[in-house]
Structure formats: structure tokens, C-alpha cells
Automatic annotation (TrEMBL):
<dbReference type="InterPro" id="IPR017850">
    <property type="entry name" value="Alkaline_phosphatase_core_sf"/>
</dbReference>
<dbReference type="InterPro" id="IPR006311">
    <property type="entry name" value="TAT_signal"/>
</dbReference>
<protein>
    <recommendedName>
        <fullName>Sulfatase</fullName>
    </recommendedName>
</protein>
<dbReference type="InterPro" id="IPR010869">
    <property type="entry name" value="DUF1501"/>
</dbReference>
<dbReference type="Pfam" id="PF07394">
    <property type="entry name" value="DUF1501"/>
</dbReference>
């Protein structure tokens, strides 16, 4: 195995010293080729790289439902919750492992009917009518699990694999392992990113692999979706001369001090930003899309415009060669009045997400694009009366990291398939448990990357997205 696939697990220590020592001490053609690729990667961190094995997916779109959608209201019908709705949990056989104090809460049935859909029979709520129409393209994981019940920490673990350290986001790992298919665009883009930069950062990986943030997607194509990207008061030739001057000074400093990831990141970002000035404006100009496509995503409709634009832009970015696009769709933290709030959350996300899957499929992109839909955790089968006095119809649900639902589509996963089950209460996983490390390992596997070999040496040890854990979920691979 030769070439750039070695880049994914040869540590990036001081490259200059490493290359010189290795070149002097070894003479094999294969090793020389490997070292040449390492040197190339140091100069062009976003250059396309070979995979460890044949990939099923070329790119990933991660649709992050921030706040924790309720699987009990959207995907997992439990007759017991319907039967015991409104009864104290302690009076209906407390589920094994439930936290102390759970017995005083009330069982909550689903907010709307959850029905079998399509030929696969996948169960989806009537609150998600558009997703119901693409049920046979979806692959459900009903036994998902993370390790922390707090929003920030669970979000951090879902994105980086850990909740107690600063580690690279999975988009940064994908960019590091594969590079970008378009030299004028970053390898990782985060749309409507959360305020916590750790969720899309590159940590100790080269800074070129951190997520490029797109906040609000402008309706006016003359406006930039990326802050500080354009300089309308300076000609392109003048900008180029300025950049060349600054870059020369930066490289001279880097030559003197050796490796400096911050300086390397600055050099790379200057060059990428200059190239992006040409590619990005046309890419984020959604007015070039057909009226039918805009309507499909719900662009122009109040409830769906924001998320519709984000999902449509995600498709355009992937089509243009970006490896990993994350779209954050918030509003799922329903501690109170879930009956009143959940329909609005579904209304804003249902049509754009389903449209993305339909659009990718009709353009021939779904087969090699992996779509991942998930929150940081799910919600409990019992209520949470945050005031202590609210009537039952105003109750919400607490966080549940022990089991929740994620779904995938395209990119080599089985269509119309459901993996994993929970107990009759919908609390503990009884089969098909998938820890977040397992999901990360599977995403990398579908991209053609071995999660145990995609490593980076930092602080004296080799790090990877899955740390020392993770098993590929073979059952869901087509």
C-alpha cells in the first residue's frame, strides 16, 4: 500500500527533521514514495488522498438536530406508553436502571400517531409527513447511545468522540483523511454552527481541516455567506500582492522556528480564502436553482426557509467537492410543552431534510453521499414538569443518552432498514446497541477509512476519532 493513504496514520511531528532523518536512513522506493507524499501533504493539506480501502461514500452531510429530538414522539411507538399515559412511572414497574426519583414522574405517550411507512414498514410520526415519503431510503439506528446527559458535553462527544477534552471534530478527521475534491473550497463546512467552536474545530490537526463556518445564508447573492471573505474596495491584483508579501514573511518565520500549526494554518487559510473569493459567491447564490427545486426545499416559506436554504446549500457544497458538511437545525430541547412545541420543530425540519434526500437521489448523488440525521441524545418516556404545577398537556421530556434514534441514508447503508430495539418502556437498549464510537467508526469505514489507522501523533501518543473504542456496524452496510 503506497502513497497518500499512509498520510492518515504517519504522525505529523517535525516534518522537516523527520524527512531528513528518514531519507538518510532508508532507501526503499516505497518508503521514499511515502515520504514524498508526506511532504506534499505538508504543503497541500487539502489535496485529495487515497483511501485505506474501497469507499462506499465520497462525502458526508451531517444534519444535527440540536437539543435532542424525542424518539418516543417521532420514531419509536411503544404500546405501554400509550396504555400508561398520565400514570406515575413508579406504579407501572420502573424500568431497570432508571435514575433515582423517576418513580414520581408521569408516563408520556406519543404526541401524535407513529405509523408504519413504505414497503419497509419503518415507523414515522404523522408530524413528519415528508420524511414518511422517503422511509424506504432511510436506515434507522434505534439503539444509539452517548455517555453524558448534558447538552454541551453530549454535543461535544457526538462531534468529536469525547466530552472532556478538545479533540478534532469528525468533519476535520474526514478532511484530514481524504482532503478536498475542490482546491478552491474547504474540506469541512459547518452551516448554522453552534457557538461552541470545539464542535467544528481541528484541535491538534492542521488548522486547514477545521470547519469553515457559514452563518446566515444571504438572500442577496451580492452578500457573502462567509464573514470577511470579500474586500470590494481592493482589486484582485492588489490583494494578491498583499497576500504574497505577508505569506513570504510568514514562511520566513516558519523556516526559522520549525513546525508551528498556527502559522501553517494562517498560511493555508490566506491562500484558501483568496481562491474562495471566486468559487464561493456562485456556490451560495441559490437564485440559480430552478423554482421547482426551491419549492421542494421550502425556500421562500416562513417555516422552512432557513433550514431549506441550509440543506440546499449542503447539497451544492457536496456537489462542488466539499467532503463534510454539517447543518445544525436547533429547537429540539423540549423540557416543557412538548405537545405545543414539537410540531413547530418538525414543521421547520421535515420538508428540507426530506427534500435533500430526494434531491441527492434524483441527481445520482445519494449512492455516494452519506446523510446522517441525529440529535446529541433523545428524550425520556416520562414527563418532566419543570414547574411542578403544570397540567399534563404542558409537560415535556428530560434528556435520555441511554437510547435514542439516529437515521442514515445513502452512502452504502441499507435502505428501508431498522437496527436496534429498546425495552417496552423505550429506555434501555435490548439489541443493536450503537455507541457514538461505533457510529464514528462506521462513518469513516463508509468513507474508505479504517478508524484504527486514521491517527495523528500529538503530545506523545497517537490520537484517533474513536480513541481506543469503536466497532463498525456491519449489519447496516448494504
Amino acid at each position: 500500500m503506497r502513497g497518500s493513504q499512509q498520510l492518515s496514520y504517519v504522525p505529523a511531528v517535525n516534518r522537516r527533521d523527520f524527512l531528513q532523518r528518514a531519507a538518510c536512513g532508508f532507501g526503499s522506493i516505497a518508503l521514499q514514495a511515502m515520504l514524498a507524499d508526506i511532504a506534499t501533504a505538508a504543503k497541500a493539506p487539502l489535496a485529495p488522498r487515497a483511501t485505506h480501502f474501497a469507499a462506499r461514500a465520497k462525502r458526508v452531510i451531517f444534519l444535527f438536530m440540536a437539543g435532542g429530538p424525542s424518539q418516543h414522539d417521532l420514531f419509536v411507538p411503544k404500546p405501554r406508553l400509550v396504555r400508561d399515559h398520565g400514570r406515575r412511572v413508579g406504579l407501572t414497574d420502573l424500568p431497570s436502571g432508571a435514575p433515582v426519583g423517576t418513580d414520581k414522574f408521569l408516563t408520556l405517550g406519543p404526541m401524535a400517531p407513529i405509523l408504519p411507512r413504505g414497503e419497509s414498514g419503518a415507523t414515522i410520526s404523522t408530524l413528519l409527513p415528508h420524511l414518511a415519503k422517503v422511509a424506504d431510503d432511510l436506515c434507522f439506528l434505534h439503539g444509539m447511545q452517548v455517555d453524558n446527559p448534558a447538552h454541551d458535553l453530549a454535543t461535544l462527544q457526538f462531534n468529536t468522540g469525547v466530552f472532556n477534552e478538545v479533540r478534532p471534530a469528525m468533519g476535520a478527521w474526514a478532511s484530514y483523511g481524504l482532503g478536498s475534491e475542490n482546491e478552491n473550497l474547504p474540506g469541512f463546512v459547518s452551516i448554522h454552527a453552534d457557538a461552541d467552536v470545539r464542535a467544528y474545530g481541528s484541535a491538534f490537526l492542521p488548522a486547514a481541516h477545521q470547519g469553515t463556518v457559514i452563518g446566515q445564508i444571504p438572500t442577496d447573492p451580492r452578500e457573502s455567506a462567509i464573514r470577511f471573505l470579500s474586500d470590494p474596495e481592493t482589486t484582485k491584483d492588489a490583494q494578491r500582492r498583499r497576500i504574497d508579501f505577508v505569506q513570504a514573511a510568514n514562511r520566513e518565520l516558519l523556516d526559522r522556528i520549525g513546525e508551528d500549526r498556527v502559522m501553517e494554518g494562517v498560511i493555508d487559510s490566506f491562500e484558501l480564502a483568496f481562491r474562495m473569493q471566486t468559487a464561493t459567491p456562485q456556490l451560495v447564490d441559490l437564485s440559480t436553482e430552478a423554482a421547482e427545486t426551491l419549492a421542494l426545499y421550502g425556500v421562500g416559506t416562513d417555516a422552512t426557509d432557513k433550514n431549506g436554504r441550509a440543506c440546499l446549500l449542503a447539497r451544492r457544497l457536496c456537489e462542488a467537492g466539499v467532503r463534510f458538511v454539517q447543518v445544525t437545525i436547533g429547537g429540539w430541547d423540549h423540557h416543557g410543552d412538548i405537545r405545543g412545541a414539537l410540531p413547530n420543530s418538525c414543521l421547520g425540519a421535515d420538508q428540507p431534510v426530506a427534500a435533500l434526500i430526494i434531491d441527492l437521489k434524483r441527481r445520482g448523488l445519494l449512492d455516494d453521499t452519506l446523510v446522517v440525521w441525529s440529535g446529541e441524545f433523545g428524550r425520556t418516556p416520562w414527563s418532566q414538569d419543570i414547574t411542578g404545577t403544570a397540567p399534563l398537556e404542558k409537560h415535556g421530556r428530560e434528556h435520555q443518552p441511554e437510547s435514542f434514534t439516529t437515521f442514515l441514508a445513502g452512502g452504502g447503508v441499507r435502505r428501508g432498514f431498522s437496527h436496534g430495539e429498546t425495552d417496552e418502556f423505550g429506555y434501555k437498549t435490548t439489541s443493536g446497541r450503537v455507541h457514538i464510537h461505533d457510529l464514528h467508526a462506521t462513518i469513516l469505514h463508509l468513507l474508505g477509512l479504517d478508524h484504527e489507522r486514521l491517527t495523528y501523533r500529538h503530545a506523545g501518543r497517537d490520537y484517533r476519532l474513536t480513541d481506543v473504542y469503536g466497532t463498525v456496524i456491519r449489519q447496516i452496510i448494504a
